[in-house]
Write a structure and sequence with these properties.
With 177 residues, the chain is α+β, with helices and mostly antiparallel strands. The chain has a domain of 115 residues: Ribosomal Protein S8, Chain: A, domain 1, CATH 3.30.1370. It is built from five helices and five strands; from the N terminus they run ααβαβαβαββ. A five-stranded mixed β-sheet has the order 1-4-5-3-2, sandwiched between helices. Helix 4 links the parallel strand 2 and strand 3. The longest helix has 18 residues. It is elongated and about 100 Å long. The relative contact order is 0.17.
Length: 177
Amino acid sequence: MTKKPDIPEEERALFREAMAGVRPQRADRVEPFRARRAPHPLQHPDEQREQALADLSIETPEFFEFRRPGIQLRLFQDLQRGLIPPEESLDLHGMRVNEARRAFSRFLGASLRRGLRCVRIVHGKGRNSPDSQPVLKQKTYQWLLQSEAVLAFVSAPRWDGGSGATYVLLSRKAGRR
């Protein structure tokens, strides 16, 4: 129980005298109307990256070999030989293109945030596709070319998937942005 402060009677009388003509105000005012904006979710960076991936009409080679300018030949050759082991892997087998695009974007974003150097993407050789066209292989090639965070990529060594998988060398700087 809290104890009331001891206020002398003279001060109480002085206060009552000062407040003699005061009447309480009625609080009948309404808050001003403010139209509230509907909430909308912020777009995740992986979704932005996913929307940026366009479908290109370019020829897809059987074996992938790509490196950006400035990547040392020795580093590229180590990637080709499988001397840089992939730290994480993504398997796109059995996915539709839209589903694979989402999975690719999320995987790439997560790999960049984690600071991974090399990853493997398994897209398959397309032998079970209609007309034996490797759809996911073509799309993977296009998406990798469009991603600035990808420094180089090559078809995996024969013992790790061959032309049905790709080793990707990622930029460590891109994950810090």
